[in-house]
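U., I forgot to send this yesterday:
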Amino acid sequence: MNREKALRIVKDHLTEHRYLHTCGVMETSIELAKRYGADAKKAEIAAIFHDYAKFRDKEEMKRIIVEEKLSQDLLLYNSELWHAPVGAILVEREVGIQDEDILNAIRCHTSGKEEMTILDKVIYLADYIEPNRRFPGVEEVREIAKESLDQGLLKALQNTMTFLMKKNQAIYPDTFRFYNGLILNQRR
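Result:
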């Protein structure tokens, strides 16, 4: 699928603000993919569709989680996590994308997971550092990401987990697994 067609499809599912974010994630993911050796075309498509289900009705997403037998513990955590795994299902069903690399990158872009491919990492980090993002710590992560994908991810995860802890919010177990996997891989 070419970029123009993908952007036309996704635009109908997003607010203008989220569409601009998506375009930023797309450009950032292509840059990161080229820098760190991921497939730039897959990164482009995964980035375009990463928030495809972001504005779906929560009851619809809950129903899909149950019907598709996704991890039921998702329902115990913040519903902001749901659009990633549900989005991967809907992108496959409604858009017809069947590339597992792309679908997996969409599936884990909010929480991460223990074993992340370079493409998965690129989409996760691009979502965090795209140029339209403005929050404390993002500039530091952008700078780190120019030198190291994994170090950029570690700093992004530290920032995210600290933010959630300060707000007394639960942290999804896959996020801890992602963080721990990065730390353990550094030691090897």
